[in-house]
Structures are given as structure tokens and as C-alpha cells.
């Protein structure tokens, strides 16, 4: 029997199956000698969510707790910016102030103007409009970068 894994199809289904999963809520670390959850019970988990799935499919080399670490690894691993979203691409949204600081945000585009990323309110991955909807004809949260990898083609 010969089996050929369908990486892109499996990758997309894994992203979709992550909705409402609490797997990405917690990441323990020692910070200044003190043990703490550096993801704040899921409120800051988009980097670990995105990087975990990318690592699972061999699209990056390490798991990351931050957007910047994930992006750096993506760029070293062959991801590049494109102009229009494609199913499976990575979206990076503009920074938004919340919880006393500016926050980067990252997630996956799944088609039909929809994305999956972690919610700082629900603290789990959710499906949402890829710009969180519109206000006065403008995106609620602008996309600042769209990343693609040739192995998804």
C-alpha cells in the first residue's frame, strides 16, 4: 500500500479543528526567577497558536510565544509576503492597544474573507472576518502583512 500525505489539506483542517481548543492557552516560563504563564491564560496566545501549527507541518523550526519570534522564524524558513490572501496564508494585523500595551496579532486565512486566530476575550482560537468586520467602510483591524510559503502551492 502506498500512502501520500496531503500536507496542505491536512494543514487547513488542523487550523479549522483548532477552533475553541484550549491547548494553546498556557505556556509556563520562569521570568525573573518566578514561574508564570506567559500567555496570560490565552489572552496573548496568537504567537504560540500559529507557530505550533506551522511547526507541526514543518513550515518553521521552533515554537514561539511571540508574533515577532514567529515572523522571524517564518522568514528564515522560506515564508514571503504576498499582496492578496490565499487559503492557508498567515495574516499579521496592525498593533492594537489592549491590556495596557500595544499588541501584535497573527493568524490564518481560511478563505471567503474569514480567518482563524486566538481571541483575547475568549482566550481560544476563533473564526472571524479577516479584518474583524468594517466600520464606516474601513477595516476594524487592518492587515499589515500577508505571508505565503511555496509548499502550500
Task: Describe the protein's architecture and organization.
With 153 residues, this protein is of the alpha+beta class. The chain has one domain (7-152): endopeptidase fold (from Nostoc punctiforme). It has helices spanning 7-17, 46-56, 67-76; strands at residues 28-31, 34-37, 80-81, 90-98, 101-111, 114-118, 125-129, 134-135, 138-139, 143-148. The strands form 3 sheets. The chain has a 6-stranded antiparallel β-sheet. The chain has a two-stranded antiparallel ribbon with strand order 1-2. Strand 5 and strand 6 form a beta hairpin. Helix 2 runs parallel beside helix 3. It is globular, with a radius of gyration of 16 Å. The model has no long low-confidence stretch (mean pLDDT 95).
Number of domains: 1
> What average pLDDT do the residues reach?
95
Task: Give the class from helix and strand content and strand pairing.
Answer: alpha+beta
Our estimate of the beta-strand percent is 25-35%
**CATH architectural grouping:** Alpha-Beta Complex
**Unreliably modeled segments:** none
Q: Report helical residue fraction.
A: 10-25%
* CATH homologous superfamily label: endopeptidase domain like (from Nostoc punctiforme)
Compute the number of helices.
3
Q: Which strand order does the major sheet show?
A: 3-10-4-5-6-7
Rg calc: 16 Å
CATH topological fold name: endopeptidase fold (from Nostoc punctiforme)
What about the largest sheet? 6 strands, antiparallel
> Helix and strand string, N-terminal first?
HEEHHEEEEEEEE
Give the terminus-to-terminus CA distance: 26 Å
Global shape:
globular
Name of the CATH class: Alpha Beta
**How many E strands?**
10
Amino acid at each position: 500500500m502506498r500512502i501520500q500525505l496531503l500536507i496542505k489539506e491536512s494543514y487547513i483542517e488542523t487550523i479549522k479543528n483548532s477552533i475553541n481548543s484550549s491547548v494553546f492557552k498556557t505556556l509556563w516560563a520562569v521570568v525573573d526567577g518566578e514561574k508564570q504563564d506567559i500567555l496570560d491564560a490565552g489572552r496573548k496566545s496568537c504567537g504560540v497558536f500559529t507557530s505550533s501549527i506551522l511547526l507541526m507541518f514543518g513550515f518553521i523550526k521552533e515554537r514561539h510565544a511571540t508574533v515577532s519570534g514567529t515572523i522571524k522564524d517564518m522568514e528564515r524558513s522560506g515564508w514571503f509576503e504576498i499582496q492578496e490572501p490565499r487559503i492557508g496564508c498567515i495574516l499579521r494585523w496592525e498593533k492594537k492597544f489592549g491590556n495596557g500595551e500595544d499588541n501584535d496579532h497573527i493568524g490564518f486565512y481560511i478563505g471567503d474573507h474569514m480567518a482563524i486566530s486566538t481571541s483575547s476575550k475568549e482566550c481560544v482560537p476563533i473564526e472571524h472576518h479577516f479584518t474583524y468586520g468594517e466600520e464606516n467602510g474601513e477595516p476594524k483591524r487592518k492587515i499589515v502583512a500577508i505571508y505565503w510559503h511555496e509548499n502550500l502551492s
